[in-house]
Amino acid sequence: NATGERGDMPEDVTADTPEDVPGDVTTGVTAGGAQAETHAFEAEVGRLLDIVANSLYSEREIFLRELISNASDACDRLRYAALTEPGLAAGDAEYRVTITPDAKKRRLTIADNGIGMGREELIRDLGTIARSGTAAFLDHLGGDRSDDVALIGQFGVGFYSAFMVADEVILRSRKAGEAEGWEWRSDGKGRFTIAPAEGETPRGVSITLHLRKDAKEFVEPDRLREIVKRYSDHIALPIVLVADGEEETINAALALWTRPKSEITPEQYAEFYHHASHLFDEPWLTIHNRVEGKVSYTNLLFVPSARPFDLFHPERKGHVKLYVKRVFITDDCPELLPGYLRFLRGVVDSEDMPLNVSREMLQHNPVVARIRAGLIKRAVAELKRKAAKDAEAYASFWENFGAVLKEGIYEDAGQRDTLLELARFHTVEGDGLISLAEYVEGMKEGQEAIYTISAETLAAARRSPQIEAFRARGVRVLALTDPVDEFWVAAVGQYRDKPFRSVTRGQVDLDRIAGDEGKDAAEGKDGGKDDDAPDDRAIDSLIAAFKLALGDAVKDVRASSRLTESPVCLIADEGDMDIHLERLLKQHRQLDHVAPRILEINPKHGVIRALARRLGAGDAGDAIGDAAKLLLDQARLMEGEPLPDPADFAKRLAAMIEKGMGRA
Ligand code: ADP
C-alpha cells in the first residue's frame, strides 16, 4: 500500500489538526505520495531523548550494543513463534544481523530478519516507554545533567540510545506474517512520523542512522569490529559486517553458555549478563555449569551486584530465560525458579524438552520441576560457598538480596535449614552482620532464647526502650527490619533448639542470664542499694492508680525488668500479635482493630519514683492520672505510633510544664 489510499483511518488519527500538541497526530503526504502520520512522543520519551541527544556520554558506542541486542531478541522471538507457525519465517530462517556502514553518506544501517514491528508496535514500542529499565532510568533522574548522563550506562536506554550518535533515525520494518512494510522516522526532537514503506520491505527491522558529524567514527569497519567484539561477541547469531561489498561475520556467533568456562573471560561473562538481564552493573556471582543425568541442561546464572529496581514488585517475577537446545523459549516461566531466587539473571538451556514446547506445557512439567530443583540446590550451594569464603563480599550480597532470600525460609521447607545458615542479621548492639550460629555461640550463660526486635529500620530498633536491659547485660538482640521476618520467624519458631523471642512481647526473665559486669550493670546507673527507692507496695499502688486512670487504653500495667533508662514502654501480651507486625498489617489495611498493649513501668526511673512517693504522701490529686496518660503517649511516640488524641497530649504536656516551672 504505497499509494496512501488508507480508508481505514485509525481512531487516534485526525487529519488537518492545526497544531500538533503532544499526543496528537497529523497526517501529511511524503515525497513518494505515501500518507505519513506525525506523532508526538510520549512526554517521558521526549524527556529521555532530550538527555540522550544532548549528552556527552563518553561510552556512546553502546548504542550499537543496544540495537544489536534488540535485533537478536527479535530473531529469538521469531524463531520461537515459527516453531508453531512455520509460515512466519518462510523463505528466510537464517537469522542474522547485518551492519552496513556508508562512509560517503555518513550512515550506518543495522538490520535483522527477526519478528519485525507493525504499525501498532512502532507507535506503542518506540513512542512510549515500553521498557521498564528505561522507566526506572527516568525515575532516577536528578536534574543534574552530568549525573543523569552517567545513569545511561547503568540502565541502558535501549533503542533511544541511537540518538546519542544520530541526528535522524529511519527505521523500516515489516512484521513477520504481514505484507505491508512501514517507515518510521524521527530526528529525536519530540516527534516521529510513520508511513507505509515504499517498495518491497524485507521481513524484520532495518535501522538507518544519519550519524552526527562528531560520530563519523561509526562508519569505520575497524571501529565497528572492535565494538561488536567488545559488547556483542556472545550474541548467538551471526553479526555480519557488510563493507566494500564483502560480508564478514565479526562475532563468535556461538551461544556463550555452550562454550567451556575456561574459554570465557570475565568481560565476556559481564557483557552477556548485561545483554541477558538488561542490567549494567557487574555480576556479583556467576554460576555456569552443565548438568547431565535424568535431565540435562546448562545454566549460566548471575547474581547482580546492585539491587534491581523491581526486586520488590509484588509479582515477584523471575528473570531467567529458558532455552531449549539453544532456542529461546520464554523469559516468563514462573515454574523455573522460586520467587525467593528472583534476583538471579541469566539463562537455562534444556536438552530434554521438545522444541515446540508451549508456555502452557511448561506448567506442571516434570522436566522443568527437575531443573528447578537442580537450580535451587546449585544456587544455594554457591551462596554458601561464597559466604564461607568471603564474609565481607557476602555481606554486600546480603544487604541487597537477604530480604528476598529470607522468603525461602518461610516458603521452602526443604531448603529451610540451609537458608537459615545463609541468613545474616544486624544486632542492636554491634556493627556488622552475624549468623544465627554466631548468635547461639555467643549466648550468655543461662540465656535460653534468641532475642529479636522488629522495627522499621535498624536505627529505630536501636532506639527502642525494650532493649535497654538486654544491652546493659550484653545480651544480643537481633534486629528484624524486613517485613518478611515476621513470617519466617513465626514459621520456624526456633534455631538449634533455641526459640526466637521478641523483646516487645510477653514477659522476659533476665535475672537468670549472667550479665557482662555482674548484676549491677543491669540494675541501671543508680542500681544496687538505694534507700530512696520506693518499696514494692508503693509501686503496686502506683500501678493500680495507673490502671484506674488509663482504663481500656491498656491491657495491663506492670513493673518492667527490661528498662534501664526509659520510664515506660509498650509490650504486646504473650498471646497477642507482636507490636511491629500489628502496625505493619494496619499500614497495609489488613487489620483495623489493634489489641490494647501492656504498659510497663520502670520502678527505678526518677519519674516513676517521684510519682510513687507523691501517691504515698496522699497529695497527688489529678497529677497521677495526668502523668499516666502522658507516659502512655510517650511510650506510643517511642514506638513511632501516632497518638490517638494529639491535642489532649499537647494540653496535658503544657499544663505539666507550667506546673513544673511554677505559676507565673
Ligand atoms: P527493550 O528492548 O528493552 O524493550 P527498547 O526501547 O530498546 O526497549 O525497545 C522497545 C521495544 O521495541 C522492544 O521491546 C521491542 O518490542 C521493540 N523493538 C526494538 N527493536 C526491535 C527490533 N529490531 N525488532 C523488533 N522489535 C523491536
Please provide a written account of the structure.
The protein is an alpha+beta fold. Helix content is 36%, strand content 20%. The strands form 4 sheets. A 10-stranded mixed beta sheet has the order 1-2-7-6-5-8-4-3-9-10. Helix 9 (391-411) runs antiparallel to helix 10 and helix 16 (536-550) packs across helix 18 (606-617). The longest helix has 24 residues, at 366-389. The protein starts with 24 loop residues before the first strand and ends with a helix.
Task: Kindly list the characteristics that best describe this protein.
664 residues, alpha+beta, ten-stranded mixed sheet, 24 strands, 20% strand, binds adenosine-5'-diphosphate
Estimated radius of gyration = 33 Å
The number of helical segments is 20
Largest sheet: 10 strands, mixed
Low-confidence blocks of residues: 1-22, 518-528
Approximately how much helix is present in the residues?
Answer: 25-40%
Number of strands: 24
Distance between the termini: 93 Å
Biggest sheet strand line-up: 1-2-7-6-5-8-4-3-9-10
Mean pLDDT: 88
**Which overall shape is indicated by the principal axes computed on the Cα atoms?**
elongated
Bound small molecules, by name, code or SMILES, are: adenosine-5'-diphosphate
Give me the secondary-structure category. Answer: alpha+beta
* Strand percent estimate: 15-25%
